[in-house]
Amino acid sequence: MAVPVAPGRWPFLGHTPAMLRRRFAFTAGLRAHGEIVKVFLGPLPAYFVTTPELAHRVLVTEGASFRKGAMFDKFRPYVGNGLLLSNGDFHLRQRRLVQPAFRHDRIVRYADTMVKAARDLTSAWRPGEIRAIDEDMQALAVTIVGETLFSTEIGQRAISEARRSIFIVIKQGMIRALSPAFVEKLPLPGNREFDVAIDRMRAIVLEVIANWRGQEIDHGDVLSLLLLAGMSDQQAYDEVITLLTAGIETTALALSWVFHEIARNPEIERRIHAEVDKVLGGRPVCFADVPRLRFTAMVVDEVLRMYPVWILMRRATAPVDLGGARIQPGDEVIVSPHALHFDPDSFEEPEKFDPDRWARTEPPRGAFIPFGAGNRQCLGNVFAKTEIILTLATVAARWRLVPVPDQPVRVRFTSAAYPSRMPMTASRRN
Q1: Mean pLDDT across the chain, nearest whole number?
Q2: Three-state DSSP class for 331?
Q3: CB atoms within 10 A of CB 12
Q4: More confident: 13 or 229
Q5: Which SS3 state, helix, strand or coil, does residue 44 take?
Q6: Residue 17 confidence (pLDDT)
Q7: Among candidates 335, 423, 422, 415, which has minimal Cα distance to 15?
Q8: Where are the extended beta strands (E) located within 36-155?
Q9: Residues 119-174: pLDDT tens digits?
């Protein structure tokens, strides 16, 4: 089969609003050219799959024939060989070692940390105060992930460093991944910020690991679990950095967009308040409430649909027949959660924020992949959704967040959808 070639070049580098519109129009328009389309990332050819069926094949049924793709290669020298980047038997071994950290009983324990952190944050709010909600949610996500990773006094220093450095690592790292190789060697401010931030993070995490080695005490945190499982210092560092980067960005952004969308939709806000009031009855939320907060969970799913990561890349390690095309070892394949989540064949009126769609129908397999799928699906997906639901319920029980007039919120994309800014006025519920 002759694979159709996308018209024009992939608008890969750049982050202006006009460039973002070109990117989204480009990826969304590829469906019209077929189920699988050849694109060029600069000089690099790649195959873009446009249907849920083929996305499911790449990520799940044929997942063993793919490894992480080209854009991830640039991260490895800086964030190591943790679950996000490792491949093959080593990845499977590490996944089995890390998986106990996300068992049901552990999520139940983490829920107390999540609720306490959310209550501590909101207790500092004052009625009528304008809050930078995106920054609040970033700080909250760092606190929650950090306190489940590190429970010692020196671990608190690592959490403080993560608040300062981790979003520099995430944002500037993705810019490097999306840029030609020579860009990272240029004396640019972003490059200097990234190098300094990753050095700071490495130093404090290795210091925490050395401190644990000197005591060899199970503190009940994730770091203790990793080290007791027999990981070397380097392996433990790689997994800690992976959990910090992967575990913070998605939840922080989803929480920001949750409050943005609720504020734009008064009827949805009213229904969330009614559900939270009924389920909680004035007491703090707890893990046992999560299954009862059904509408709240649908709101979270709708946010995860509308604000996902832009692309996932995979590299074939074996020949695969995909949509009539013969993919060879070394070929790059792209799956776009953003394009899939806005596909009108899978989601009616995809541009509309409509939580009730999740009660009406289930999307096709492969159409909704906010945490990936298959053996590379994010291990922390339940952790993340629990954190978002518990935080939303904690805030909604006592507060309304109101957009500041004449300060529009726009989407900025690196790896995921960041708000340009998100000032909101905190208002006590009557």
Answers
A1: 90
A2: coil
A3: 18
A4: 229
A5: strand
A6: 47
A7: 415
A8: 36-41, 44-49, 66-68, 130-132
A9: 999 999 999 999 999 999 999 999 999 999 998 888 899 999 999 999 998 888 87
Q: Token pair for residue 262?
A: 């609720």
Go through the chain and tell me how many residues it has.
430
Place of tokens 């873009």: 48
Rounded average pLDDT over 20-43: 76
The model's pTM is 0.93
The span from the CA of 418 to the CA of 166, in Å, is 15
- Sole residue written with tokens 């939303």: 392
What pLDDT is recorded for position 15?
A: 46
- The answer to whether residue 77 scores a pLDDT higher than 80 is no
Percentage helix, strand, coil for the chain under 3-state DSSP, each rounded to 5:
60, 10, 30
- The first and second tokens of residue 171, run together, are 């944002």
Residue located via tokens 């401190």: 211
| Domains identified in the chain and CATH numbers | 17-428 (1.10.630.10)
Parallel, antiparallel, or unpaired: how do β-strands 44-49 and 332-335 relate? Answer: parallel
Cβ neighbours of residue 31 under 8 Å, at least 6 residues apart?
50, 51, 339, 343
By DSSP bridging, strand 423-428 and strand 130-132 are antiparallel
Cβ contact 37:4 at 8 Å: yes
Distances 120 to 46, 99, 284, 315 between C-alpha atoms, Å:
47, 29, 12, 44
Tokens 């949610």: give the residue: 137
Place of tokens 């208002």: 427
* Token pair 């490495």 in the structure block, residue: 202
